[in-house]
Design brief:
Length: 127
Amino acid sequence: MFLRVAPSLAAARHCRRWIVPIARECGATPAAIAAVELLVSEVVVNAVKYGAMRDTIEVTATCDRRLLVVGVRDHNPDPPVVLEVGPAAPGGRGMHLVQRMAHSWGVRPHGAAGKPVWFQVALDGGA
């Protein structure tokens, strides 16, 4: 499944609404759906903030046996950074959440064409 959204403040909300029925159709538990919602929001917000946007962010979703695989492609070739921020920091936790909550995650560099950041969430809600 594939979605294109404008790089705007509403992009994360739109992507959450798109991914939930897909996760349900794949057989995800409520805990897995909650994790997917949060993680897609974090990765899409990163794409909006740092993605060297042209006109769209591309989001993909695939069910792979016991995993839901989500990819978010932007046009910035630089990989995301997992920050370690203190409890009083107002932000900077997005990729840290992805690292902690996803079954696995990574980046597929495409040179000057950007990259998709992907993550997998276990459909049963486990890591």
